[in-house]
């Protein structure tokens, strides 16, 4: 049995040669078109530097118009992260690599809510995200439009929702 393990390992390595040596871009890598523009500042000749900047800005503008490049500030990234709160998504470089900007809770209001039966509720937030209770726990007061709700992220992809003045319930984002 021991003699077969090294052969299996070698077979797997030959079956996936790119996996062992594949290089991935760092999470904070900038697009080539942006790096080329930034590199213009290193040109010592002012005329060449200006020509480089003109060419680089024009290329960046064209790429943005064709949606090949998206330019976003920190606030736009926060809004995007807030809109995606509750979804399990792969780590996307477009949202930056920093955990300090990660949304850990969402404070919002209920737009609509309905009883799903079996002491379960489904509600829509002001932003349009739809959440559903994942446990049978009766709330003291059913959430109504305008009710404040705090949705918190916990370990292992678990979320809780607390409607103003009530106990927290386990929820998951469904839309």
Structure description:
The longest helix is centred in the N-terminal third of the chain and has 20 residues, at 46-65. The protein is α+β, with helices and mostly antiparallel strands and 175 residues long. The protein has a six-stranded antiparallel barrel with strand order 1-2-3-6-5-4. Helix 3 (32-39) runs antiparallel to helix 4. Among the domains are: 32-65; 105-173. The protein starts with a helix and ends with a strand. It is rod-shaped. It is built from five helices and six strands; from the N terminus they run αααααββββββ.
Would you summarize the structure shown here?
This protein has helices at residues 4-15, 17-21, 32-39, 46-65, 74-84; strands at residues 105-117, 120-125, 130-133, 148-153, 159-163, 168-173.
Task: Please outline the helices and strands.
Blueprint: H1 4-15, H2 17-21, H3 32-39, H4 46-65, H5 74-84, E1 105-117, E2 120-125, E3 130-133, E4 148-153, E5 159-163, E6 168-173
Antiparallel strand pairs: 1-2, 1-4, 2-3, 3-6, 4-5, 5-6
